[in-house]
Structure formats: C-alpha cells, structure tokens
Specification:
Strand 7 (about 180-190) and strand 8 (about 195-205) form a beta hairpin. The protein has nine helices and ten strands. It has about 350 residues and is of the alpha+beta class. The longest helix has 17 residues, at about 120-135. It has a five-stranded mixed beta sheet with strand order 8-7-6-9-10, with helices on both faces. The structure holds zinc ion. Zinc ion binds near residues 50, 65, 67 and 72.
C-alpha cells in the first residue's frame, strides 16, 4: 500500500512551523512584503493604486506614496485581513502556520495556549483567515463527474433528565432550530486522485428547490452527477445524467457508482467539529468552507498551504465581518443559501 501523503517528506515543504516561529520580525516583514507585492521591490499604494518603489520609513516599517498628489502612508498590512494588528509580524505568521498545519482544523484556544495569550485575538485572526478563504472561492461551474450530498450539523437536542419530560425529537416542531444541512458539490479529478474541487453551501435541509437552484448555478449541463437516493436529487435527472447509490443497501454499487469523495469531506468536517469548541450556525459556512479548502489541497505541502493562506489574507481586503468584533460589531445575517 502506498505511503500516506502526510508521512512523506513532500508534505512538509521548505519550512516547518518551527522555522517560522524562529524567524526575526524583519524576516517576517520581508516575507509579508514579497507575498503581497512580489519580489521586485515595488509596492502598490492602497490609496491611489500606483505600483512603484515608494519611500520606505525604516523606523516605522511603513511606506509613503511617492506620488506627489497622494503622499499616503501605508504598511504591508494596510487594507488586508491583518489591518490594525497589534501583534508583531512574526507572531501573526506563527499563528497562520499553526492554522495551516492543522489538517483537520484547530481551535483558537489551542493556538492561544501555545503562545500563552488570550484566545480572543486568535479567534478573530482565524475567523479572518476563514473569511479570506470564503471570499477567494472558485465558483466557476463544475463539469465532468460531480458528486453531491448533504450532511447535517447542529441538530442534536439533549434529552431531559426525567423520561416524562423528554420530547419526541423526530417531530418537525421539536427539531433543533439551529439545524443546518451542508450541501457539498465535489468535482472528481483524474482516476485515483480523488476530488479536485469543492463548492459547499449551507441550506436548511436537503430539498428539491435548493438542490435544483444550486446545481443550475454551479454544475454545467453535460455533467454526470453521483448522489445517494434521497428524493430531492431525483429531479436532477431532467437536466443531467444522474447515478444514484442506495446507502441502505451498499456504499458503492458493482458498477462503481459511489459518492465517497463527498463522504470523505464530511468525515473531515465532523473531525473539525470535534476540535473546535463552538461554532455559531451563522458562521457554519466559513468553517465547512475551510475544510473544503483543506481537502482540495490535501496533497500540497504544509509550507505551500501556509503561503497560500498568507496570500489570501493579504489580497482579499479588510475584514468586514470581524473588524471591531469585541467592540460590539456583530454579524446579523445567516449564511443560508438564498435562491435567486
Ligand atoms: Zn498613493
């Protein structure tokens, strides 16, 4: 049997978490500059957008725009997910490295314990990383072979102590109001390579209307869809070639019809929720999208994933959701998919 990827040297890459933790703050600053603007020594002024070598204010590690009419002062984190940071650059990179290294997701509390600091800034940083991943999703329609399935989260209702106080948890009006279904669409890659790309959405439950709208939006008409025998997928047969497997009977038919890539993704998601301590249903999409990104890039090295996360945080703008969170800025809207 082939060696697991995570046991191979290719999974580690050029640098380890330890190497990143030992970087000086100057080295961390250079890495951030090169990741944001490239290695040719130019910067892009976030105010006027001019790309050139701007004046460097060494003592403050800031730049001043060299365009006379602008003169804007900016840093490498201005207008990024790291804007208004208080921690040194190397601390931020160390935390991103811990995040990247956790293949099944990690809790902010665990990273905070590693650094010996409060979990609050770490939680915000990690949620900003998740926001950056969400904003940089590839939503181009899928083709060839696509697996679709749903997985439920936040459905559990704790039974009352006394039997006479317990409710019938099967009845619809007794269901947990936070119950959500994550619908995953996974495009298969080359034979034997597993899935190559994933789009996840959050819906109330697996229903025909949402499934139909999502497949029209994200799957090309000539695709072959693999799914289970839930009734909501039956209507897809009018637009696609649909192959279904009855999980009550088997997980893969004799002809090889299965949706193991979707199930594999859900297994990783469930592992994530055994690590994190809390996830508000409003933010569920950010957590499951993080796992989808991790699963799609499972054969990339740690250092590649680390640099990719840093790049996405630097290039996806300032955080709308998590800025001033502890000062009372709370997200009101749910992350449910809306049929348009
Ligand atoms: Zn400027």
């Amino acid at each position: 049997m082939a060696q697991h990827f995570l046991l191979s040297p290719a999974s580690r890459g050029e640098k380890s978490v330890f190497d990143i933790a030992r970087m000086s703050n100057d080295e961390a600053f250079i890495l951030l500059c090169e990741t944001r603007w490239g290695k040719n020594g130019t910067q892009c002024c976030p105010s006027c957008g001019v790309v050139r070598k701007h004046y460097f204010i060494k003592a403050r590690r800031q730049f001043r725009c060299a365009e006379k009419q602008c003169g804007h002062t900016f840093s490498v984190t201005s207008g990024t997910k790291f804007a208004y940071h208080k921690k040194p650059y190397v601390d931020i990179l160390y935390l991103i490295a811990l995040f990247a290294n956790a293949v099944e997701g990690t809790a902010a509390l665990r990273s905070a314990a590693n650094m010996g600091v409060s979990y609050k800034p770490i939680l915000l940083l990690y949620n900003k990383v998740r926001e950056a991943l969400f904003q940089s999703r590839d939503l181009t329609p899928m083709h060839n072979e696509v697996e679709i399935d749903g997985c439920y989260f936040h459905y559990y209702i704790r039974p009352a102590n006394k039997r006479e106080h317990r409710i019938d948890r099967r009845l619809s009006f007794n269901l947990n109001p936070n119950k959500r279904a994550v619908l995953a669409m996974r495009q298969r890659g080359l034979p034997g390579q597993g899935a190559s790309r994933t789009i996840v959405t959050v819906i109330k439950n697996e229903n025909e209307q949402d499934v139909s709208a999502l497949s029209t939006k994200f799957i090309k008409p000539n695709a072959i869809i693999y799914t289970d025998n839930h009734t909501c997928y039956a209507s897809l047969a009018t637009s696609y070639t649909v192959k279904q497997v009855n999980h009550a009977e088997e997980y893969s038919t004799d002809d090889g019809v299965n949706e193991n890539q979707a199930e594999s993704l859900f297994a990783r998601m469930r592992k994530q929720f055994s690590h994190v301590h809390k996830c508000d249903p409003k933010f569920l999409i950010y957590y499951v999208n993080e796992i989808a990104w991790r699963d799609d890039n499972r054969r990339q090295s740690f250092y590649w994933q680390f640099l990719e996360l840093v790049k996405k945080c630097l290039q996806s703008g300032q955080s709308r959701l998590w800025s001033k969170y502890w000062q009372g800025n709370r997200i009101k809207e749910d992350c449910l998919f809306v049929t348009s």
